Amino acid sequence: MTEVIHEIERIRLAARISQAEVSMILGVTQGHYSKVINGKVELSLKLKERMQEWINSQADTVHETATARRMKQLAVSIRQQCMELMHLAGLPGEMIEGSTHVESG
User: Fold this and answer.
1) Helix, strand or coil for residue 36?
2) pLDDT, tens digit, for every residue of 65-103?
3) 3-state class of 94 per DSSP?
4) C-alpha triplet 96, 94, 71: angle, nearest 5°
5) How far apart are CA 53 and CA 47, in angstroms?
6) Which is nearest to 76 in space by CA: 48, 103, 54, 49?
7) How many Cβ atoms from other residues are within 10 Å of residue 91's Cβ?
């Protein structure tokens, strides 16, 4: 297991964050994340860079409160639900990337 995979899993488990939450943050499916973590799929450079960015961002949140941590978890969940809703509606997922709303047409 590469160092970045070991570190991301250490942080994920310590923070009690699900693979689904981390995979959503990284922009991959939970299944793909699991395959990478378990060595069934090779870790791409792009995903490795995203993992390292997330690891670095977690260093800043070591002392966050339980409330702040829960707010982040809820934000990830809401984003995931929005993505699923857009998928079911037949809209491309990129429509919510970096935007705060989707205009109706």
Assistant:
1) helix
2) 677 778 888 888 898 888 888 888 887 655 544 444 444
3) helix
4) 40
5) 10
6) 54
7) 13
